[in-house]
Amino acid sequence: MSYAEMILPEFDQEVATTRRVLERLPNDKLDWKPHPKSNTIGWNANHLTEIPGWVENILTEPGFDVAPVNGEPHATPTLSNRDAILELFDGNTIEARSAIQRFDNAKLNEPWSLYEAGAAVMTMPRGAVMRTFVLSHIVHHRAILTVYYRLNDIAVPAIYGPSADEQG
User: Fold this and answer.
1) Which fold has domain 3-151?
2) Cβ pair 133, 139 in contact under 8 A
3) Which tens digit of pLDDT belongs to each residue from 129-144?
4) What's this model's pTM, rounded to 2 decimal places?
């Protein structure tokens, strides 16, 4: 079984579920956060849009530097409305899926590193990075967003089964 055959069903399920969550994004509450130390609804939504955009790098490059010396540091997008957020999410998802389909299985256990200013923060096999920093990361921030929705009386869509809002 190829890596694509193994991971794409899960990837497709998680991004479809995430899109349903993002479709309920309240344009008028993007700046809302439950606590001063928390990120906003808008930040979490923007972060969710960028995560699939990391797949191409993870599968084809040896690593990524979030703050390269003499370069621009990575910045999470700052899109200010649901439609723009969905558009970026959809584009990144299409590109990610294509990268997964083209991926050479022989490279699955090759190391991939996350750097900050040239120093390795972590190194893991590409397959583990996909599972942890893409799929689990999507689930994590999607869960945060659904809690924020609940706190703002925004209906939460079904995720792994019906939500209280969809059971009627």
Assistant:
1) Four Helix Bundle (Hemerythrin (Met), subunit A) (1.20.120)
2) no
3) 999 999 999 999 999 9
4) 0.95
